Amino acid sequence: MAKGTASAVASPNIALIKYWGNRDHELRLPSNGSISLTLGGLETRTTVSFDETLPSDRLTVDGSPPTNSALVRVSEHLDRIRHLAGIHTPAQVESRNNFPAGVGVASSASAFAALTLAGTAAADLSLNPKELSRLARLGSGSACRSIFGGYVEWYAGETHADSHAEPLAPPEHWDLIDLIAVISREHKGIGSTQGHTLADTSLLQSARVTDTPRRLNICREALLHCDFPTLASIVEQDSNLMHAVMFTSTPALIYWAPTTIELMQAVTTWRAEGLEVCYTIDAGPNVHCLCTKQHADQVEERLGHLPGVIDLLRAHPGGPASVI
Ligand code: DP6
To answer: How remote is the CA of residue 275 from the centroid of ligand 1, in Å?
Structure first.
Protein backbone atom coordinates (compact mmCIF):
# COMPACT_ATOMS: atom_id res chain seq x y z
CA MET A 1 0.00 0.00 0.00
CA ALA A 2 1.41 3.39 -0.94
CA LYS A 3 -0.93 5.68 0.98
CA GLY A 4 -4.17 5.30 2.89
CA THR A 5 -5.68 7.98 5.05
CA ALA A 6 -8.72 7.99 7.35
CA SER A 7 -10.04 10.04 10.26
CA ALA A 8 -12.24 9.01 13.17
CA VAL A 9 -13.84 10.57 16.23
CA ALA A 10 -14.45 8.95 19.63
CA SER A 11 -15.61 10.13 23.06
CA PRO A 12 -14.14 9.14 26.42
CA ASN A 13 -16.29 7.28 28.93
CA ILE A 14 -16.84 7.30 32.66
CA ALA A 15 -16.99 3.89 34.34
CA LEU A 16 -19.99 3.40 36.62
CA ILE A 17 -18.65 -0.03 37.59
CA LYS A 18 -14.86 0.19 37.32
CA TYR A 19 -12.20 -1.87 35.57
CA TRP A 20 -9.26 -2.25 37.94
CA GLY A 21 -6.66 -5.02 37.59
CA ASN A 22 -5.99 -7.50 34.81
CA ARG A 23 -5.86 -11.29 34.71
CA ASP A 24 -3.57 -10.85 31.67
CA HIS A 25 -1.76 -7.51 31.38
CA GLU A 26 -0.41 -8.14 27.86
CA LEU A 27 -3.87 -8.85 26.43
CA ARG A 28 -5.63 -6.46 28.81
CA LEU A 29 -8.02 -9.17 29.95
CA PRO A 30 -9.59 -7.44 32.96
CA SER A 31 -10.08 -9.02 36.37
CA ASN A 32 -13.73 -7.94 36.30
CA GLY A 33 -16.44 -6.71 33.96
CA SER A 34 -17.40 -3.03 33.90
CA ILE A 35 -20.17 -0.64 32.85
CA SER A 36 -19.73 2.88 31.49
CA LEU A 37 -21.39 5.92 30.03
CA THR A 38 -19.91 7.36 26.82
CA LEU A 39 -19.32 11.09 27.36
CA GLY A 40 -20.84 13.12 24.53
CA GLY A 41 -19.52 16.65 24.07
CA LEU A 42 -15.95 15.50 24.78
CA GLU A 43 -14.07 13.98 21.85
CA THR A 44 -10.79 12.91 20.31
CA ARG A 45 -10.33 13.28 16.53
CA THR A 46 -7.57 11.24 14.98
CA THR A 47 -6.21 10.98 11.43
CA VAL A 48 -4.00 8.07 10.39
CA SER A 49 -2.06 8.25 7.11
CA PHE A 50 0.01 5.25 6.06
CA ASP A 51 2.92 6.60 4.06
CA GLU A 52 5.77 4.54 2.61
CA THR A 53 8.04 7.59 2.43
CA LEU A 54 8.13 7.90 6.26
CA PRO A 55 11.15 6.34 8.00
CA SER A 56 9.03 5.43 11.07
CA ASP A 57 5.71 6.21 12.77
CA ARG A 58 5.04 9.86 13.63
CA LEU A 59 2.58 11.17 16.22
CA THR A 60 1.28 14.56 17.29
CA VAL A 61 -1.22 15.10 20.12
CA ASP A 62 -2.94 18.49 20.16
CA GLY A 63 -0.33 19.72 17.69
CA SER A 64 2.74 18.73 19.75
CA PRO A 65 5.01 15.69 19.72
CA PRO A 66 4.09 13.41 22.66
CA THR A 67 6.30 11.61 25.15
CA ASN A 68 8.34 8.69 23.89
CA SER A 69 6.22 6.17 25.76
CA ALA A 70 3.03 7.49 24.10
CA LEU A 71 4.62 7.06 20.66
CA VAL A 72 5.72 3.50 21.54
CA ARG A 73 2.19 2.65 22.71
CA VAL A 74 0.63 4.07 19.53
CA SER A 75 3.22 2.30 17.35
CA GLU A 76 2.44 -1.00 19.06
CA HIS A 77 -1.24 -0.45 18.30
CA LEU A 78 -0.44 0.39 14.67
CA ASP A 79 1.58 -2.88 14.55
CA ARG A 80 -1.59 -4.78 15.52
CA ILE A 81 -3.46 -3.07 12.69
CA ARG A 82 -0.58 -3.60 10.20
CA HIS A 83 -0.43 -7.27 11.18
CA LEU A 84 -4.17 -7.69 10.45
CA ALA A 85 -3.81 -5.86 7.13
CA GLY A 86 -0.57 -7.63 6.12
CA ILE A 87 1.33 -4.35 5.62
CA HIS A 88 4.52 -2.82 7.04
CA THR A 89 3.94 0.83 6.10
CA PRO A 90 4.79 3.53 8.72
CA ALA A 91 2.04 5.98 9.61
CA GLN A 92 1.57 9.63 10.49
CA VAL A 93 -0.96 9.98 13.34
CA GLU A 94 -2.51 13.32 14.31
CA SER A 95 -4.77 13.37 17.34
CA ARG A 96 -6.70 16.27 18.87
CA ASN A 97 -8.82 16.40 22.02
CA ASN A 98 -11.50 19.05 22.54
CA PHE A 99 -11.03 18.68 26.32
CA PRO A 100 -7.93 19.54 28.34
CA ALA A 101 -5.49 16.74 29.12
CA GLY A 102 -5.12 15.59 32.72
CA VAL A 103 -8.60 16.56 33.94
CA GLY A 104 -9.56 13.11 35.14
CA VAL A 105 -11.15 12.22 31.82
CA ALA A 106 -9.64 9.02 30.50
CA SER A 107 -8.24 10.34 27.22
CA SER A 108 -6.62 6.95 26.52
CA ALA A 109 -10.13 5.52 26.03
CA SER A 110 -11.13 8.02 23.31
CA ALA A 111 -7.57 8.07 21.92
CA PHE A 112 -7.35 4.31 21.33
CA ALA A 113 -10.96 4.02 20.15
CA ALA A 114 -10.36 6.77 17.55
CA LEU A 115 -6.95 5.31 16.60
CA THR A 116 -8.50 1.85 16.13
CA LEU A 117 -11.22 3.18 13.82
CA ALA A 118 -9.00 5.56 11.83
CA GLY A 119 -6.14 3.02 11.60
CA THR A 120 -8.29 0.11 10.41
CA ALA A 121 -10.12 2.34 7.91
CA ALA A 122 -6.82 3.73 6.57
CA ALA A 123 -5.53 0.15 6.20
CA ASP A 124 -8.73 -0.76 4.34
CA LEU A 125 -9.76 -3.32 6.93
CA SER A 126 -13.44 -3.92 7.52
CA LEU A 127 -14.09 -4.99 11.12
CA ASN A 128 -17.45 -5.23 12.89
CA PRO A 129 -18.02 -3.27 16.15
CA LYS A 130 -17.25 -6.29 18.35
CA GLU A 131 -13.94 -6.85 16.55
CA LEU A 132 -13.13 -3.13 16.81
CA SER A 133 -13.90 -3.25 20.54
CA ARG A 134 -11.50 -6.19 21.06
CA LEU A 135 -8.77 -4.49 19.06
CA ALA A 136 -9.23 -1.17 20.92
CA ARG A 137 -8.98 -3.10 24.23
CA LEU A 138 -5.45 -4.21 23.37
CA GLY A 139 -4.43 -0.52 23.18
CA SER A 140 -6.24 0.62 26.34
CA GLY A 141 -8.76 -1.47 28.25
CA SER A 142 -11.36 1.27 28.71
CA ALA A 143 -11.14 2.10 24.97
CA CYS A 144 -13.14 -1.05 24.17
CA ARG A 145 -16.16 0.67 25.78
CA SER A 146 -15.68 3.93 23.81
CA ILE A 147 -16.36 2.10 20.52
CA PHE A 148 -20.03 2.21 21.53
CA GLY A 149 -22.32 5.09 22.47
CA GLY A 150 -24.66 5.51 25.42
CA TYR A 151 -24.55 2.93 28.23
CA VAL A 152 -22.01 0.18 27.62
CA GLU A 153 -20.95 -3.07 29.29
CA TRP A 154 -17.52 -4.68 28.88
CA TYR A 155 -17.76 -8.44 29.34
CA ALA A 156 -14.49 -9.45 31.03
CA GLY A 157 -14.31 -12.80 29.20
CA GLU A 158 -11.54 -15.33 29.58
CA THR A 159 -9.77 -15.06 26.23
CA HIS A 160 -9.05 -12.33 23.68
CA ALA A 161 -12.05 -13.50 21.65
CA ASP A 162 -14.65 -13.08 24.38
CA SER A 163 -13.41 -9.89 26.10
CA HIS A 164 -15.21 -7.00 24.43
CA ALA A 165 -17.86 -4.37 25.10
CA GLU A 166 -21.44 -4.22 23.92
CA PRO A 167 -24.11 -1.53 24.12
CA LEU A 168 -26.51 -1.82 27.08
CA ALA A 169 -28.80 1.09 26.18
CA PRO A 170 -28.61 3.90 23.59
CA PRO A 171 -27.73 7.50 24.58
CA GLU A 172 -31.37 8.63 24.45
CA HIS A 173 -32.41 5.95 26.98
CA TRP A 174 -31.62 8.20 29.96
CA ASP A 175 -30.45 11.79 29.94
CA LEU A 176 -27.85 11.60 32.70
CA ILE A 177 -25.34 14.42 32.88
CA ASP A 178 -21.71 14.09 34.02
CA LEU A 179 -20.39 17.28 35.63
CA ILE A 180 -16.64 16.85 35.96
CA ALA A 181 -15.28 18.95 38.80
CA VAL A 182 -11.63 19.63 38.05
CA ILE A 183 -9.62 20.27 41.19
CA SER A 184 -6.15 19.61 39.81
CA ARG A 185 -4.59 19.64 36.35
CA GLU A 186 -1.38 17.98 37.48
CA HIS A 187 -0.53 14.73 35.74
CA LYS A 188 -0.90 11.71 37.96
CA GLY A 189 2.29 10.07 39.16
CA ILE A 190 1.17 6.51 38.54
CA GLY A 191 -1.07 6.03 35.51
CA SER A 192 -3.77 3.40 35.11
CA THR A 193 -1.58 0.92 33.21
CA GLN A 194 0.89 0.73 36.09
CA GLY A 195 -1.94 0.90 38.63
CA HIS A 196 -3.59 -2.22 37.18
CA THR A 197 -0.39 -4.19 37.86
CA LEU A 198 -0.58 -3.26 41.57
CA ALA A 199 -4.23 -4.22 42.12
CA ASP A 200 -3.44 -7.81 43.16
CA THR A 201 -1.06 -6.60 45.88
CA SER A 202 -4.12 -5.45 47.84
CA LEU A 203 -5.83 -8.03 50.07
CA LEU A 204 -9.11 -6.34 49.16
CA GLN A 205 -8.88 -6.90 45.40
CA SER A 206 -10.08 -10.53 45.48
CA ALA A 207 -13.14 -9.55 47.57
CA ARG A 208 -13.86 -6.68 45.19
CA VAL A 209 -13.54 -8.91 42.11
CA THR A 210 -15.65 -11.74 43.63
CA ASP A 211 -18.44 -9.26 44.40
CA THR A 212 -18.43 -7.64 40.93
CA PRO A 213 -21.27 -9.71 39.38
CA ARG A 214 -23.56 -8.39 42.15
CA ARG A 215 -22.61 -4.76 41.49
CA LEU A 216 -22.90 -5.23 37.73
CA ASN A 217 -26.42 -6.67 38.12
CA ILE A 218 -27.57 -3.84 40.36
CA CYS A 219 -26.07 -1.20 38.09
CA ARG A 220 -27.47 -2.77 34.90
CA GLU A 221 -30.97 -3.02 36.36
CA ALA A 222 -30.87 0.51 37.77
CA LEU A 223 -29.80 1.84 34.37
CA LEU A 224 -32.44 -0.12 32.48
CA HIS A 225 -35.17 1.11 34.88
CA CYS A 226 -33.78 4.67 35.17
CA ASP A 227 -33.72 4.15 38.95
CA PHE A 228 -31.46 6.98 40.19
CA PRO A 229 -31.32 6.21 43.96
CA THR A 230 -30.19 2.61 43.30
CA LEU A 231 -27.71 3.74 40.64
CA ALA A 232 -26.26 6.42 42.95
CA SER A 233 -25.69 3.98 45.78
CA ILE A 234 -23.97 1.29 43.65
CA VAL A 235 -21.87 3.79 41.65
CA GLU A 236 -20.49 5.39 44.84
CA GLN A 237 -19.90 2.00 46.47
CA ASP A 238 -18.03 0.74 43.40
CA SER A 239 -15.82 3.83 43.23
CA ASN A 240 -15.06 3.57 46.95
CA LEU A 241 -14.21 -0.13 46.60
CA MET A 242 -11.72 0.59 43.80
CA HIS A 243 -10.08 3.36 45.84
CA ALA A 244 -9.96 1.05 48.89
CA VAL A 245 -7.97 -1.39 46.74
CA MET A 246 -5.73 1.46 45.56
CA PHE A 247 -5.11 2.69 49.14
CA THR A 248 -4.17 -0.81 50.28
CA SER A 249 -1.89 -1.73 47.36
CA THR A 250 1.89 -1.90 47.70
CA PRO A 251 2.94 0.79 47.08
CA ALA A 252 -0.27 2.54 48.15
CA LEU A 253 -1.99 4.56 45.44
CA ILE A 254 -3.65 7.63 46.89
CA TYR A 255 -5.26 9.67 44.13
CA TRP A 256 -7.53 11.80 46.34
CA ALA A 257 -6.76 15.37 47.38
CA PRO A 258 -8.45 17.05 50.37
CA THR A 259 -10.93 18.73 47.98
CA THR A 260 -11.85 15.31 46.53
CA ILE A 261 -13.20 14.26 49.94
CA GLU A 262 -14.93 17.61 50.48
CA LEU A 263 -16.73 17.10 47.17
CA MET A 264 -17.71 13.53 48.02
CA GLN A 265 -19.24 14.81 51.25
CA ALA A 266 -20.98 17.72 49.53
CA VAL A 267 -22.51 15.41 46.91
CA THR A 268 -23.87 12.98 49.51
CA THR A 269 -25.33 15.90 51.49
CA TRP A 270 -26.99 17.34 48.38
CA ARG A 271 -28.49 13.94 47.60
CA ALA A 272 -29.91 13.72 51.13
CA GLU A 273 -31.48 17.14 50.47
CA GLY A 274 -33.25 15.75 47.37
CA LEU A 275 -30.89 16.43 44.45
CA GLU A 276 -30.35 13.47 42.14
CA VAL A 277 -26.54 13.42 42.09
CA CYS A 278 -23.78 10.95 42.94
CA TYR A 279 -19.99 10.90 42.63
CA THR A 280 -17.47 8.60 40.99
CA ILE A 281 -13.69 9.04 40.83
CA ASP A 282 -11.14 7.47 38.46
CA ALA A 283 -7.36 7.28 38.85
CA GLY A 284 -6.99 10.96 39.76
CA PRO A 285 -8.32 13.57 42.21
CA ASN A 286 -11.10 15.03 40.05
CA VAL A 287 -14.72 14.17 40.80
CA HIS A 288 -17.33 13.10 38.26
CA CYS A 289 -20.75 14.19 39.53
CA LEU A 290 -23.44 12.19 37.74
CA CYS A 291 -26.88 13.72 37.90
CA THR A 292 -30.25 13.67 36.22
CA LYS A 293 -30.77 16.37 33.58
CA GLN A 294 -33.53 17.83 35.75
CA HIS A 295 -31.07 18.59 38.57
CA ALA A 296 -27.92 19.27 36.52
CA ASP A 297 -28.17 23.08 36.53
CA GLN A 298 -28.61 23.21 40.31
CA VAL A 299 -25.68 20.85 40.85
CA GLU A 300 -23.53 22.83 38.42
CA GLU A 301 -24.34 26.04 40.25
CA ARG A 302 -23.43 24.54 43.63
CA LEU A 303 -20.18 23.02 42.28
CA GLY A 304 -19.25 26.41 40.85
CA HIS A 305 -19.40 27.91 44.35
CA LEU A 306 -17.18 25.31 46.00
CA PRO A 307 -13.67 26.53 46.77
CA GLY A 308 -11.08 24.29 45.14
CA VAL A 309 -13.07 23.58 41.96
CA ILE A 310 -10.91 25.16 39.23
CA ASP A 311 -12.93 24.06 36.21
CA LEU A 312 -16.18 22.31 35.37
CA LEU A 313 -16.83 20.19 32.26
CA ARG A 314 -20.31 19.04 31.29
CA ALA A 315 -20.95 15.85 29.30
CA HIS A 316 -24.10 14.02 28.21
CA PRO A 317 -24.70 10.49 26.88
CA GLY A 318 -22.71 10.41 23.63
CA GLY A 319 -22.74 8.41 20.41
CA PRO A 320 -20.41 5.65 19.19
CA ALA A 321 -16.95 6.14 17.72
CA SER A 322 -17.16 6.72 13.98
CA VAL A 323 -15.08 7.21 10.86
CA ILE A 324 -15.44 10.76 9.53
C1 DP6 B 1 -9.90 3.86 36.89
O2 DP6 B 1 -8.24 1.76 30.52
O3 DP6 B 1 -6.90 3.70 31.43
O4 DP6 B 1 -10.52 4.64 34.73
O5 DP6 B 1 -5.88 -0.48 29.93
O6 DP6 B 1 -3.86 0.41 31.02
O7 DP6 B 1 -5.09 1.84 29.36
P8 DP6 B 1 -5.18 0.76 30.43
O9 DP6 B 1 -6.03 1.36 31.61
P10 DP6 B 1 -7.31 2.27 31.55
O11 DP6 B 1 -7.92 2.01 33.01
C12 DP6 B 1 -9.08 2.66 33.41
C13 DP6 B 1 -9.19 2.63 34.89
C14 DP6 B 1 -10.32 3.46 35.48
C15 DP6 B 1 -11.61 2.66 35.58
C16 DP6 B 1 -12.36 2.42 34.30
O17 DP6 B 1 -12.34 3.26 33.38
O18 DP6 B 1 -13.05 1.39 34.24
So the answer is: 29
Which amino acid type is present at position 71?
L
Element (H, E) at 8: strand 3-10
Assess contact for 288 and 14: CB atoms under 8 A: yes
pLDDT per residue over 67-95, tens digit each? 888 899 999 999 999 999 999 999 999 99
Neighbours of 164 (CB within 10 A): 23
| Ligand 1 nearest atom to the CA of residue 13, by list position | 17
Q: Do the beta carbons of residue 290 and residue 176 sit within 8 Å?
A: yes
* Residue to mutate (ligand 1; options 34, 112, 142; most atoms within 8 A of CB): 142
Instruction: Tell me whether strands 164-169 and 277-280 are parallel, antiparallel or unpaired.
Output: unpaired
pLDDT tens string 103-137 = 656 689 999 999 999 999 999 999 999 999 999 99
- Nearest protein CA to atom 14 of ligand 1, as residue: 282
The residue length of the chain stands at 324
